[in-house]
UniProtKB/TrEMBL annotation:
GO terms for molecular function: NAD binding; UDP-glucose 6-dehydrogenase activity. It is an enzyme of class 1 (oxidoreductase). Residues 315-417 form the UDP-glucose/GDP-mannose dehydrogenase C-terminal domain. Belongs to the UDP-glucose/GDP-mannose dehydrogenase family. Pathway: Nucleotide-sugar biosynthesis; UDP-alpha-D-glucuronate biosynthesis; UDP-alpha-D-glucuronate from UDP-alpha-D-glucose: step 1/1. Substrate binds at F150, L151, R152, E153, K205, F250, L251, F252, P253, G254, G258, K322. Gene3D superfamilies: Cytochrome c1, transmembrane anchor, C-terminal, NAD(P)-binding Rossmann-like Domain. It comes from Sediminitomix flava. It catalyses: UDP-alpha-D-glucose + 2 NAD(+) + H2O = UDP-alpha-D-glucuronate + 2 NADH + 3 H(+). The active site is at C261 (nucleophile). Its EC number is 1.1.1.22. This is UDP-glucose 6-dehydrogenase. InterPro entries: 6-PGluconate_DH-like_C_sf, NAD(P)-bd_dom_sf, UDP-Glc/GDP-Man, UDP-Glc/GDP-Man_DH_C, UDP-Glc/GDP-Man_DH_C_sf, UDP-Glc/GDP-Man_DH_dimer, UDP-Glc/GDP-Man_DH_N, UDPglc_DH_bac. Keywords: NAD, Oxidoreductase.
Length: 436
């Protein structure tokens, strides 16, 4: 099949590459000329495990192309994916200007029947808006389909190639047939493709992300309460998660959810409920709790140092909003570091992949280092913000030699508290007793 993917970011690039991997002819469009030039030069623009191989193979075998020329890209294709940004507007609603702007352009450009697919996360009713925007100028038939994306950064390739399910919202039998042919190779193991109406598909994505954000937030509150009552959230998590009705995944407390999706999607669903005069109380609390949780680690550090970090050197391990990505959008590390700097600390930071992106925010206000141990030299404390695997079994003796004080604030509960007693560290984590 011939496919155009408009927007070549985390979703567009992974989707385009994976569609090419199953034998399709894919042309990815982006209006960022630098990005397209880099991709055309054979260089990936994001860090995503497993993507490099697929990208190299499919470009070499001439199934995957990149361009800035929208009109040329959509000329001969059967399907057009919109993988454009939908950032939060000032009132929390999803900003649809990218999606609708491109939709209007497409109306002028298409010269034969197309299936136009909303891959971006968009509020209920957007498929109708996209159809209306295209229709303004279109002289040919088309169908607009909602096909929300559920991939997770860090495991995006696997998620895309072997999705738990594919959700397709369409009321057109013709479009349904096209989407079925396209996704068939991805669900050969028997996972479902759910066909539904457009509005339900749009809602499914927001409901899924908001539920996951709620689950994390619930565990963060349990963890905060565990600290107060002297319980250990790790034990509680295991005890809860072994119940089949609950399940073990997504029960890890931490420093709040971040990333480019959960914060904005929870906000957008809340805005949808406000617009529809529905008082979605749970979502309000989720946003409120998460806004507090993002500051939990820096508050612990400030408390330890009596609210004065002047002359203190804090090392930070982990900047990406989660491991295995270079994405720092809404990363808890941003809030943590900002608070530490404001209180007078000198901050040295290490991340395996996300430093370059973080430098754009902090510039020379933070000292970024190339190796995890370099951050620790003469540090008064270490703050762990992202649970990269490389932080899980460090050389504690060496760390103790490097650091001025053997003090760790762990926002991801990476280490066993008993072990930290043995190693002689002050160790303060989330929802567990502090090792003094
Ligand atoms: P992104 O910012 O990484 O990528 C968007 C791309 O669109 C950028 O490369 C940008 O240059 C390009 N673009 C902007 N305007 C354009 C235009 N007029 N023409 C062509 N290209 C244009 O965003 P993303 O993370 O890939 O997210 C895209 C959508 O997918 C969002 O709605 C997001 O909520 C949703 N989503 C994201 C994820 C994720 O993990 N990142 C997962 C599921 C769904």
């Amino acid at each position: 099949m011939k496919i155009a993917v408009i927007g070549t970011g985390y979703v567009g690039l992974v989707s385009g590459t994976c569609f090419a991997e199953t034998g399709n002819h894919v042309i990815c469009v982006d209006n960022d000329a630098q990005k397209v030039a880099k991709l055309n030069a054979g260089e990936l623009t994001i860090y995503e495990p497993g993507l490099e191989n697929l990208f190299q193979r499919n470009t070499k075998e001439q199934r995957l192309f990149f361009t800035t020329d929208l009109e040329e890209a959509v000329k001969d294709v059967e399907i057009i994916f919109l993988a454009l940004p939908t950032p939060p507007g000032e009132d929390g609603s999803a900003d649809l200007s990218y999606v609708l702007g491109v939709a209007e352009q497409l109306g002028q450009m298409i010269t034969s029947y197309k299936v136009i697919v909303d891959k971006s996360t968009v509020p209920v009713g957007t498929a109708e808006k996209v159809a209306a925007a295209i229709k303004k100028n279109a002289k040919v038939d088309f169908d607009v389909v909602s096909n929300p994306e559920f991939l997770r950064e860090g495991v995006a390739v696997d998620d895309f190639l072997k999705p738990d399910r594919v959700v397709v919202g369409t009321s057109s039998a013709r479009a349904q047939d096209v989407m079925h042919r396209l996704y068939e190779p991805f669900v050969r193991q028997g996972n479902p493709i759910y066909f539904m109406d457009e509005r339900s598909a749009e809602m499914t994505k927001y409901a899924a992300n908001s539920y996951l954000a709620t689950r994390i937030t619930f565990m963060n509150e349990i963890a905060n309460l565990c600290e107060t009552v002297g319980a250990n959230v790790d034990e509680v998590r295991k005890g809860m998660g072994s119940d089949n009705r609950i399940g073990r995944r997504f029960l890890f407390p931490g420093v709040g959810y971040g990333g480019s999706c959960f914060p904005k999607d929870v906000q957008a669903l809340h805005k949808t409920s406000v617009d529809n005069k529905y008082d979605f109380k749970v979502l309000k609390s989720v946003m409120e709790v998460n806004n507090k949780q993002k500051h939990v680690l820096s508050e612990k550090i400030l408390k330890y140092f009596n609210n004065d970090l002047n002359g203190k050197h804090i090392a930070v391990w982990g900047l990406a909003f989660k491991p295995n990505t270079d994405d720092i959008r809404e990363a808890p590390a941003i809030y943590t570091i900002e608070n530490l700097l404001r209180a007078g600390a000198k901050v040295t930071a290490y991340d395996p992949e996300a430093s370059e992106n973080m430098k754009k925010i902090f510039e020379d206000r933070v000292n970024f280092v190339e190796h995890r141990y370099d951050a620790l030299k003469e540090a008064d404390a270490l703050a762990i913000v992202t649970e990269w695997s490389i932080f899980r079994t460090p050389d504690f003796s060496f760390m103790g030699e490097l650091m001025k004080e053997k003090v760790i604030f762990d926002g991801r509960n990476l280490y066993d508290t008993e072990l930290m007693i043995d190693k002689g560290f002050y160790y303060n984590s989330i929802g567990r007793n502090t090792v003094e």
